[in-house]
Amino acid sequence: MRLDGFGILVEDMGRMIRFYRDVLGFDIRETEDTSNVYLVKDGTLFLLYGRKDFEKMTKHRYEYVKGLNGHCEIALYVDTFDEVDAAFKNAVENGATPVLPPELEPWGQRTCYIADPEGNMIEIGSWNKPFEEKDAGR
Question: Which residue among 2, 46, 85, 100 is least packed, with the fewest CB closer than 10 Å?
Answer without folding.
Answer: 2
